[in-house]
């Protein structure tokens, strides 16, 4: 199985494309609340990021039904980047796709947002797109 990874940071989001023989998914991390706090000149602010993305394959049962979809998973990260909460924020309408997105969110690893020289906790949407 071959896996390719493309990373692009756009306006505070991180997009990953994971490709495998079984299917492909695009994964984005989007902040659920925007910070309005000013950052210090000595410290660069850095958004939270997916440091190691788990493979998100279209489930065989969904592929067999010719079903695709997009699931948004609400995740919470603590200040060290550890996952503390997951829940479906917006369903694809297919439970198999939603479960695959939840699994990918739980198995991925993250780095916390950095603001004013410290890491901070936050809430994000881990968006898995099985339509591409």
Structure overview:
This protein has 132 residues and is mainly beta. The chain has one domain. The protein contains two helices and ten strands; from the N terminus they run ββββαββαββββ. The strands form three sheets. Strands 1-2-3-10-5-6 form a six-stranded antiparallel sheet, with helices on one face. A two-stranded antiparallel sheet has the order 4-7. It has a two-stranded antiparallel sheet with strand order 8-9. Strand 5 and strand 6 form a beta hairpin.
**How do the SSEs run, as a string of H and E?**
EEEEHEEHEEEE
Shape verdict: elongated
Average pLDDT value? 82
Count every helix, treating DSSP H or I runs of 4 or more residues as helices: 2
The low-confidence parts are: 1-22
What is the strand content? over 45%
Summarize the biggest pleated sheet.
Answer: 6 strands, antiparallel
For the terminal residues, how far apart are their CA atoms? 19 Å
Tell me the helix content: 10-25%
**How many domains, as an integer?**
1
Strand segment count: 10
Going across the biggest sheet, name each strand in turn. Answer: 1-2-3-10-5-6
Structural class: mainly beta
CA radius of gyration: 15 Å
């Amino acid at each position: 199985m071959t896996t390719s990874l493309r990373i692009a940071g756009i306006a505070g989001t991180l997009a990953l494309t994971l490709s495998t023989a079984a299917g492909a998914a695009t994964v984005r991390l989007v902040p659920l609340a925007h910070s309005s706090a000013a950052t210090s000149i000595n410290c660069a602010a850095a958004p939270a990021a997916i440091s190691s993305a788990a493979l998100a394959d279209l489930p065989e049962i969904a592929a067999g039904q010719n079903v695709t979809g997009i699931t948004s998973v609400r995740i919470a990260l603590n200040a060290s980047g550890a996952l503390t909460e997951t829940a479906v924020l917006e369903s694809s309408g297919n439970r198999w796709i939603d479960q695959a997105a939840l699994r990918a969110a739980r198995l991925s690893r993250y780095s916390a947002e950095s603001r004013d020289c410290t890491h901070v906790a936050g809430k994000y949407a881990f968006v898995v797109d099985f339509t591409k």
